[in-house]
Amino acid sequence: MHDEGGATADISHLAARTPFQRDRDRILHSAAFRKLKHKTQVFVYHEGDYFRTRMTHSIEVAQIARSMARALSLNDDLAEAVALAHDLGHTPFGHAGEDALSGAMGPYGGFDHNEQTVRVLTILEQRYAGFDGLNLTWETMEGVTKHNGPVTNEAVIRPAIFEIDQALGLDLTTHASAEAQLANLSDDIAYLSHDFDDALRAGLFGFDQIADLPQVGQILREIDRIYGRVQVGRLTHELVRRLITVFVSDLLQQSAANIASLSPKSADDIRHAGQPIIAFSDAMARDLEVIRSFLFQNMWRHYKVNRMTSKAKRVVTDLFNLFMSETNTLPHEWQAMGDAPIAELGDAARARIIADYIASMTDRYAIVEHERLFELGPILR
Length: 381
Known about the structure:
The chain is globular. The protein starts with 11 loop residues before the first helix and ends in a 7-residue tail after the last helix. α4 packs across α10 (178-202). 62% of the residues lie in helices and 0% in strands. The protein is an all-alpha fold.
């Protein structure tokens, strides 16, 4: 995006990297990526040390995407970069935090974590002397922006998405590259398999409740046939690793057939194919929907998760409302983020800075910030 030039451009170990490897490294070294360590996947960080966070999830997605990209002779570095970046815009407390921040931002243009990822990558990461953001390649930015598919309704294009499209010419009406499509479905594979691990560990449901699920039941019966009764932890791990294998095998087989049928001569042939080229078979897609529906009812909307969700929403809403009414309680660097002091900005501009600040928080920082501002006690900690 920017010409970096300068005397450091020929340093040997940097010159040895491909542009997509450089993208991956910049994402890994970003402040936003480090914060994912303490951002919710399903369970808030203090619920247990072994539950997945946004960081562990992103690493798992990247590993799956990279492996499949290599199997399909795609660019594994690009697939990895898109996968690592795809969740950088998430708020603290996962989708509960996003719902709360979206509600609070309703009068001021709304909030969307995919748009926030673009803001992180192009504006909010302020580490380099020559530019804001991470200065990623066109292909990586296109993949992050369009990994969920084309944006065909101009009325719903978010402002940051519109601006990056105007700057780079991403052509939002087409599909993303095969690598970005792969990163998107690797996300599905990761959470639809690993969520069983977290939910079983948390006791939200037992093996008897999942024995009739498509793919899951067959795998459990196969494990029992080969190993007999095994310890719960081993059984859970064996289920998850075999689920991933089944999902990956189907995706590779169907995608390879789609690529062979299309016979693309360039990456643009993939983008203009009119439908995703990276895809599950119809039968597996139906099975995944059944699994997703089960997890929705029995994990993501379990009353124990709902209780944490309810508290998380109150934390985010309380913080937003206080910062909007008392901007002098924001850290100094955030008060100076706009074109003028925050107290002099209009409501929408002020709200966007506050949303950027809250979205950047980890779960534990948001909890501590709430304690500082709403509980009588020490504030200099």
